[in-house]
Write a sequence for this structure.
């Protein structure tokens, strides 16, 4: 799949928050999928730790729920980045592969 770039001439937005985040021209679909895999692993670990911490009344996570909320918000944003990267990777693939 190498050499199947997302866009050879222009950057494309894959995530938007207060600003827009762009994929560099020439980025391979494989690279986007690899990045998405890293981000989903990070988001999964955040959610797993939050779930464990929020069920233990003695944990720092349970006591500091504001911090827990911010971490879950961060995990949600990571998942939005994953979704955008996968969408752009699929757009870069030939129709048969997507």
């Amino acid at each position: 799949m190498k050499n199947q770039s997302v866009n050879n001439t222009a950057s494309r937005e894959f995530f938007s928050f207060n600003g827009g985040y762009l994929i560099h021209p020439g980025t391979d679909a494989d690279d986007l999928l690899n990045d998405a895999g890293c981000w989903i692993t990070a988001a999964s670990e955040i959610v797993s730790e939050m779930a464990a911490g929020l069920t233990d009344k003695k944990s720092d996570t349970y006591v500091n729920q504001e911090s827990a909320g911010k971490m879950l918000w961060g995990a949600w944003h990571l998942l939005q980045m994953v979704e955008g990267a996968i969408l752009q990777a699929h757009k870069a693939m030939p129709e048969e592969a997507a």
Summary: Residues 12-92 form one domain. Strands lie at 12-16, 20-23. The first strand starts at residue 12 and ends at 16.
